[in-house]
Specification:
The chain is α+β, with helices and mostly antiparallel strands. Helix content is 43%, strand content 14%. The longest helix has 25 residues, at 5-29.
């Protein structure tokens, strides 16, 4: 029997919506998101659109809350629900990075000091090899002067996407960070372990003395090794979050 492309596309869309919901719940359950922050996924049927919740606390997100936005942050005609003010973070990253399929924006408190000081966030253990030599910092004031720190339009989103470049993580001074990946499980993993690495690095620095970070080659090798096991934590986190 011949396959039905339309049916297959609808199934892929339903699955991805479920993954976006799960990602919101996981990141809230793990303390990476609270009432703020958001998660998105590139639309499986139209690469110039993305799926993201309406403006809602991540822990409360359900499938019916997921919106379909274009690169300009606009929903289809007739969808009048409020979307996140910072949807332009997601839109401009997807526009700039065809390889990115999922984006997480978090305000995790442990990461903020590294975005607002001279101390660089660097991988301190094998679970955070994706941090490489340390993420760049987006300072919105350098280009846009004094603002409320939010990425509210295309120009600000584009400036952030340029700082991110081809990296997995970008920090945001006085704000938080962005994690991206070629799949939702990996983006969620990176968001969680960015926060955990920040906590560990702060603990190591507080002990005094020199901190031995992963060097560039160790980071690459560790990241490649861990990436092959991402389904293990994803399935565990998903089960815990959706049953909470």
């Amino acid at each position: 029997m011949a396959s039905n492309p339309a049916r297959g596309g609808a199934a892929a869309l339903r699955k991805l919506i479920d993954d976006v919901v799960a990602a919101n719940r996981i990141l809230a359950n793990q303390g990476v998101l609270d009432a703020y922050g958001h998660v998105s996924a590139r639309h499986p049927l139209d690469p110039k659109r993305f799926l993201i919740s309406r403006s809602l606390a991540p822990e409360l997100v359900t499938a019916k809350d997921i919106m379909d936005l274009d690169y300009d942050g606009n929903p289809p005609k007739g969808d009048s629900r409020s979307s996140y003010l910072e949807r332009f973070i997601h839109a401009e990253v997807y526009r700039a990075r065809p390889d990115v399929m999922a984006v997480v924006h978090s305000h995790a408190a442990s990461v903020i000091p590294f975005a607002s000081s001279q101390i660089k966030l660097r991988p301190i253990y094998h679970m955070s090899g994706f941090l490489g030599s340390g993420p760049s910092v987006f300072d919105i004031r350098r280009k846009f002067g004094n603002t409320d720190m939010l990425v509210r339009n295309r120009a600000q989103g584009l400036a952030l996407a340029r700082i991110l470049g081809n990296d997995s993580i970008a920090l945001m001074r006085g704000h938080g960070y962005v994690a991206v990946a070629a799949s939702m499980p990996v983006a969620v993993y990176r968001a969680i372990f960015t926060e955990r690495n920040a906590l560990l690095q702060q603990s190591a620095l507080a002990m005094g003395g020199a901190v031995r970070f992963l060097n560039d080659e160790e980071a690459v090798l560790a990241e490649a090794s861990v990436r092959g096991t991402i389904t293990r934590p994803w399935e565990l986190w998903r089960k815990k979050a959706l049953s909470a």
